[in-house]
Amino acid sequence: MDVELMLKVYPFFLKAAWLTIQLSVLTTLLGLTCGSLGAAARLSRHAFLRAVGATYVSLIRGTPALIQLFILYFGGPQIGIQLDAFEAGVIGLGVNIGAYMTETIRGAIVAVDKGQTEAARTLGMSKFQTMTRVVLPQAARLMIRPLGVNINALIKGTALVAAISVVELTYTAQRYIGSTYKPFEMFLLSGALYMVIIYITGRGIAWLDRKARIA
Amino acid sequence: MNDAKPFLDIRHAQKSYGALEVLKDISLQVQRGQIVAIIGPSGSGKSTLLRAINDLDPLTGGEVWLEDTQINKHLPHRQYEKHINKVRQDIGMVFQHFNLFPHLTVRGNVTLAPKMLKGLSEEEAITLAEEQLDKVGLLDRIDYYPSRLSGGQKQRVAIARALAMKPKVMLFDEATSALDPELVEEVNQVMKKLAEEHMTMVIVTHEMGFAESVCDRVLFMDQGVVVEEGPPGVIFRNPQNERTRNFLRKHLEGVRS
After folding, report:
1. In chain A, how many domains are there?
2. Which of B38, B63, B74, B94 matches a 20 to 30 Å C-alpha distance to B177?
3. Gap from A208 CA to chain B (nearest CA, Å)
């Protein structure tokens, strides 16, 4: 193993890791937005909105994320959508993880005991008040860990945007392999940095979960 | 049985799930300050009837009136929501499984609805909560989360939460059925206190002794109909109907064994 080479190139990998972090954060934010809207649609009393939510989830979960990225980035210009690779990566991955988060959020809301809603409605609270003051505070606790699983998958999923030439961790490894012919060292470096990001995120999620339980 | 206009009036209540008829043309009038117990085997429709009063389980036929307001009105969605949220403020309900809000303290549980729906300030709401918690004997638990309370305490907090809305009538849906036997009495005591204050109450219960001691009237329901109804002395001591006698006998055997 060429440790010397690894030490020489790792600052470039750090820069790539920073891009992976940016991608992950933006994707998480977009995913949570899509997930919240999706869950609201899935739980709506309007059949049309429920159908929209269900279609979103099944379309996204029924096709590979890579295909979705390709359609957006390579196919987009044909239908008038011009995005640079980073934008396409964030939007593609965000909309993708949003479908999974839709199910996570919906599941947590549904898991709150029906008696809670009954008690609130019986006191005279509206559906909206019941949702915001009684159901969601409880569902929020239930969804922290499963959303953490979604985010974990999303961080690893950012590797896909290497395929549309975003210079993040995976693409950077491929680039240095082109010049060094040392795939073992380069992929090892990338992998190690992914692990650091995921470890820190995981600790953060666990901390949030503990915090929510105490309160 | 009374000339005065009923306070709570259930007229020809009918409820079915497809072909299954769970309430078959039930009428029940409750006067202000009256306490009515509904007894009967499980599946008899007694909880369904109780939950129809605040339209938690809407009827498929018949009407429910509280004073001059029809509760189960057929209105467009938005108007119905507005209407029902208003009338439910007048109808307190206590559930078998308490349904306290676990993310709020006892204080939060009792003050949430009055603050949100009656526009009380924080101080006013807390004063109100303290009054109600004092009534159920749990003022010293005001800062506790529900998870730290016993079942009997939880149910007393649930009663205080309902009372804080100053309801005109209280509904109890097997309020003591989920409690350990030694905790039943403390909840019964609170309900007795309400009876002494002439709170109008409709109580679905398996506690025959309690029903006999506090109620003005008892309904025995079976298979979606009121089989027999009358003063507790008659229903419990001298029931006229065979099904009532069978039920009470079986129930007594169950209690003894």
Report:
1. 1
2. B63
3. 16
CB contact under 8 A, A123 and B97: no
Range of the domain at A187: 3-214
CATH number at residue A135: 1.10.3720.10
Report the relative pairing of strands B225-230 and B69-70 from DSSP bridges. Answer: unpaired
Confidence (pLDDT) at B255: 64
Q: Note the pLDDT of residue A168.
A: 87
CB B176 within 8 A of CB B158: no
Within 13 Å and on the Cβ side, how many CA atoms surround B123? 0
Q: Do B165 and A138 lie within an 8 Å CB cutoff?
A: no
Q: Do A119 and B100 touch (CB under 8 A)?
A: yes
- Which residue on chain B is closest to A123 by alpha carbon? B89
From the list A113, A119, A127, the residue facing B81 with the nearest CB is A127
pLDDT tens-digit profile of A111-128?
999 999 999 999 999 999
Min Cα–Cα distance to chain B from A140, Å: 11
How distant, in Å, are the alpha carbons of A85, A136, A146 from that of A105? 29, 10, 9
pTM exceeds 0.95, yes or no: no
Residue percentage of chain B with pLDDT more than 70? 97
Name the pLDDT band for A180 (thresholds 50, 70, 90): confident
Report residue B90 as tokens: 């007048």
- Over residues A26-37, the mean pLDDT reads 97
